Amino acid sequence: MRFEGLDLNLLIALDAILEERSVMAASRRLHLSQPAMSAAIGRLRHYFNDDIFTISQRKLVPTPLAQSLERPTRDILLRIRANLISVPRFEAANSQRRFRIVVSDYASMVLMHPVMKRVYQSAPGISFELFPFNDRVHDQLQRGDVDFVIVPDVDVLDGHPKQYLFADEFCCVAWTGSRKVGRSVSLSRYLQLGHVTAQFGPTRRAAFEERALVKLGYKRRIEVVAPNFTTMATMVIGTDRVATMHERLAVLFARNFPLKLLRAPVRISGFREILQWPASFHSDPALVWMREIISDVAAEIDRTPAAKMTFG
């Protein structure tokens, strides 16, 4: 399709190049061969009478014109997708929709497992794709590349609708066989013990509890850095180490592993999990339907004391 002499398919190629900052990555994203992508770049350069990008120190650098086109191009594609491609009606029972959600392993177990169980009972054709957090979450949400992001309130993303889900606190977990950790732990003992924590994404961002403790002026001896929250819990088994983690998740693990729960000797502020979705797709019937299910399940979790949490 052409508009004012421009093949609108080229906007998709331009958007991919500006997002990926790599011709090869843009080719993979659009499932195009390298020659086909090179041809698209050539046509873009001819139409705009501009290089679109240059190569500096092996990196793709957009020209000033390309930079000025980045936001308008993204907005146009989002509007086309939201207003022309979206199905006006959504029949969940017969739908084959795949929902893409950025979510931590904590919220996956505590929230998304019962959500998916409920969806399966009424709409078995619906599927899910869960993504870990990364440094491009805001862009993914802005572009509509993901349907939902579930984050703690301290990490809420600006510019997108949000909805409160449920609250949680922090506690400590230790191996039931540990001789150094009894039914409680003092602050001095807590700081003397070896600790398990987690870091996330390419930047290896510290977990919330570590950031909170550093802010309070406490320095722990970190002996194990896990890739996620669920691994944190299991890494203390067979050792005298301790992990400080979400209470609702800790309760689920303590029911299935040789773990004991202890009150944290340091007051770490609780948090609230928040659901966010792309502003451009606020009225998408499928997203509205899924938001209602997630909200209903989250409300049940919020009413349930952490000590009574059950898996699923």
TrEMBL record:
<keyword id="KW-0536">Nodulation</keyword>
<protein>
    <recommendedName>
        <fullName>HTH lysR-type domain-containing protein</fullName>
    </recommendedName>
</protein>
<keyword id="KW-0238">DNA-binding</keyword>
<keyword id="KW-0010">Activator</keyword>
<feature type="domain" description="HTH lysR-type">
    <location>
        <begin position="6"/>
        <end position="63"/>
    </location>
</feature>
<comment type="similarity">
    <text>Belongs to the LysR transcriptional regulatory family.</text>
</comment>
<keyword id="KW-0678">Repressor</keyword>
<dbReference type="InterPro" id="IPR050389">
    <property type="entry name" value="LysR-type_TF"/>
</dbReference>
<dbReference type="Pfam" id="PF00126">
    <property type="entry name" value="HTH_1"/>
</dbReference>
<keyword id="KW-0805">Transcription regulation</keyword>
<dbReference type="Pfam" id="PF03466">
    <property type="entry name" value="LysR_substrate"/>
</dbReference>
<comment type="function">
    <text>NodD regulates the expression of the nodABCFE genes which encode other nodulation proteins. NodD is also a negative regulator of its own expression. Binds flavonoids as inducers.</text>
</comment>
<keyword id="KW-0804">Transcription</keyword>
<dbReference type="InterPro" id="IPR000847">
    <property type="entry name" value="LysR_HTH_N"/>
</dbReference>
<dbReference type="InterPro" id="IPR036388">
    <property type="entry name" value="WH-like_DNA-bd_sf"/>
</dbReference>
<dbReference type="GO" id="GO:0003700">
    <property type="term" value="F:DNA-binding transcription factor activity"/>
</dbReference>
<dbReference type="InterPro" id="IPR036390">
    <property type="entry name" value="WH_DNA-bd_sf"/>
</dbReference>
<dbReference type="GO" id="GO:0003677">
    <property type="term" value="F:DNA binding"/>
</dbReference>
<dbReference type="InterPro" id="IPR005119">
    <property type="entry name" value="LysR_subst-bd"/>
</dbReference>
